[in-house]
């Protein structure tokens, strides 16, 4: 049997109002839109993933993360008041006219619901295919608030219940157990037969099946507070989600400079403070030996870049004969200036960082590495995640890799 043609479409308008440039704003170190693109690309059922956008920058980011952008969405379908229907009808009609492409199933992936279980799309497609009478499948979670206890205000100032229940007097006063279960539609996934859009002029058709989703995945980003909650969810790292795959870059052939963060890379990110406020940290002698071997065997330059002002940073670097830059608030800006001062190219530089303030440097260099215990978003964005934690041999591990590669 021929595999069904399943098209995943990520709608991403450029002129978002609540959070400007929301679709390409970094969430956990990668653009928001990348999560929805990853869901399409990593699904076993989806055969093609595209982004419908009116914005050239969004289109470029979409292509960077593996989606196709066969067309630019017309301005008339990109306004604040534009509904989903004309956007998806345009996509289907454009593909039919220009490519003679006719998918069996259409998947809508809203960027504002970025956290999806790994098999969610496959479940949605299979559920739709198993029920020929169904027009669509929609992801839902249990309602956070019971709609049978909701009201509307009449013109005369009195209130009326929004919903009633047959056989239940005053449903708004009834216990929850006597009321029907209700569900909230999320933006995680809609699986739709194209006939619903093209023939019935509907985004869902007449027969809609529910796909029940764990409410822990419910994140709908519309405000900055929603964004903060999403960042917190990534930080807690408790959900198994479809995450964007970084295009890991190969080791540079002839790197000239290794840049190291200090706390969390050359230390275990802890600090001891005495009663007088003096700070002490723990460092690895193995890391020191690795840096000495790297300098002697390859001649490679090493620079430590730290936002800390504590003298312990300078003292440790002096002992190891390393150049150091301290009190660096904006590491990316300092790095760009360093490129100009030393005549460096991105492929000349390797960077090792462990926390969010290191992330802006990663795309500027030829190769980025992270210790095993780095912040989740940093590990996700790194070209190489070392097996050793910071302060426990991560630097030594990278030094030995460099010695092996540069000596061969």
Automatic annotation (TrEMBL):
Q: Which InterPro entries match?
A: CMP-NeuNAc_synthase (IPR050793), Cytidylyl_trans (IPR003329), HAD-like_sf (IPR036412), HAD_sf (IPR023214), KdsC_fam (IPR010023), Nucleotide-diphossugar_trans (IPR029044)
Q: Which SUPFAM superfamilies match?
A: HAD-like (SSF56784), Nucleotide-diphospho-sugar transferases (SSF53448)
Q: In which pathway does this enzyme or protein participate? A: Amino-sugar metabolism; N-acetylneuraminate metabolism
Among the record's GO biological process terms, what is one? N-acetylneuraminate metabolic process
Which keywords are on file for this protein? Hydrolase, Magnesium, Metal-binding, Nucleotidyltransferase, Transferase
Cofactors per UniProt? Mg(2+)
Superkingdom field = Bacteria
Q: What is its EC number?
A: 2.7.7.43
The UniProt entry's sequence similarity note says:
Belongs to the KdsC family.
Q: How does it assemble?
A: Homotetramer.
Q: What name has this protein been given in UniProt?
A: N-acylneuraminate cytidylyltransferase
Originating species = Pelolinea submarina
């Amino acid at each position: 049997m021929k595999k069904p043609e399943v098209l995943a479409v990520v709608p991403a308008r450029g002129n978002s109002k609540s959070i400007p440039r929301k679709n390409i704003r970094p969430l956990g170190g990668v653009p928001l839109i990348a999560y929805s693109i990853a869901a399409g690309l990593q699904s076993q059922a989806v055969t093609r993933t595209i982004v419908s956008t009116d914005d050239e920058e969004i289109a470029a980011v979409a292509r960077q993360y593996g989606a196709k952008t066969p067309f630019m969405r017309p301005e008339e379908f990109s306004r604040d008041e534009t509904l989903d229907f004309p956007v998806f009808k345009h996509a289907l009609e454009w593909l039919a006219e220009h490519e003679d492409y006719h998918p069996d199933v259409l998947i809508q992936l809203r960027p504002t619901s970025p956290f999806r279980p790994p098999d969610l799309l496959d479940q949605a497609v299979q559920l739709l295919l198993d029920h020929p009478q169904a027009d669509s499948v929609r992801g839902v979670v249990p309602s956070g608030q019971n709609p049978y206890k909701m009201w509307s205000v009449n013109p005369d100032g009195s209130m009326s219940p929004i919903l009633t229940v047959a056989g239940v007097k005053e449903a708004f006063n009834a216990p929850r157990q006597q009321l029907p279960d209700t569900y909230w539609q999320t933006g995680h996934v809609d699986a739709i037969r194209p006939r619903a859009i093209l023939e019935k002029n509907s985004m869902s058709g007449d027969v809609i099946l529910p796909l029940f989703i764990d409410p822990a995945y419910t994140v709908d980003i519309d405000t900055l507070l929603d964004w903060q909650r999403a960042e917190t969810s990534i930080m807690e790292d408790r959900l198994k989600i479809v995450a964007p795959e970084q295009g890991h870059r190969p080791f540079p052939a002839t790197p000239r400079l290794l840049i190291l963060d200090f706390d969390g890379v050359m230390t275990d990110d802890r600090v001891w403070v005495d009663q007088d406020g003096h700070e002490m940290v723990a460092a690895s002698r193995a890391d020191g030996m690795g840096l000495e071997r790297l300098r002697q065997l390859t001649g490679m330059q090493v620079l430590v870049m730290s936002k800390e002002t504590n003298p312990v940073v300078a003292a440790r670097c002096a002992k190891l004969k390393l150049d150091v830059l301290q009190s660096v608030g904006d590491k990316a800006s300092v790095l760009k200036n360093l490129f100009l001062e030393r005549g460096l190219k991105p492929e000349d530089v390797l960077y090792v960082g462990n926390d969010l303030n290191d992330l802006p440097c990663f795309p500027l260099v030829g190769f980025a590495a992270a210790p095993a215990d780095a912040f989740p978003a940093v590990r996700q964005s790194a070209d190489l995640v070392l097996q050793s934690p910071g302060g426990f041999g991560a630097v030594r591990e990278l030094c030995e890799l460099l010695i092996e590669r540069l000596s061969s």
